[in-house]
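sorry for the late reply, my laptop died twice this morning and i had to redo everyting from scratch. anyway the thing you sent over, i finally got around to it. pasting the sequence first so we're on the same page, its 199 residues, then the predicted structure underneath. double check i copied it right bc i was rushing
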Amino acid sequence: MRTLSAGMVLMFGMLALAEDAAAPVGSAYYPLKPGSKWTYVVRDQKDRFSIVVDEHKTKIGEFPTSFVLKASVGDKAVTEEYVVPSAKGVVRIQTGTEIILPELPILQKEMKKDDKWTSTFKVGSARGDEIRADCTVDEETIRVPAGEYKTIKVISTVTEKGMVLKSTVWYAKDVGMVKQEINYGDSKVDLELEKYDKK
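ok and here's the structure:
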């Protein structure tokens, strides 16, 4: 699952919901405003993980514009992910330089506790093996370094060639992703929000 693991924090975390064209870009659970920045504490790591939103005005596939989520660890850029608000919610259309087909819906336009959805997709120009993501919605109040939040929790099980990755992401209203846990084989990654710089 090399393709997935490289950008997994973004692939199953940093996404938004779209409302209508007259509304602010993004949704209550993930404000997608250029210049906004999220900084996370990563368990057992000294450097902080951060994500900054920017606009991408070059066409990708059928989409003339998109938002790019630029991730870094410390001062080192690690990946870029491209998302687009759509009738389905927000869909991911590209990870790094690899196109995702069909586009991958992460958060639905409307969500409530016990909602479920399944997506199948392929990543990259070679269009390799099909990847499946099964998602379930829950609710929980949690505390992270940035404070206490009432959240919507999205639990994803991602399968490729018999290998399984599990991701749980907590989204807070007007803030976005406040926590994520990723389990893949013997590896585990925990992120907790330390600071949100709203633009």
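The mean pLDDT is 83.
thats about all i looked at so far, will dig more tmrw
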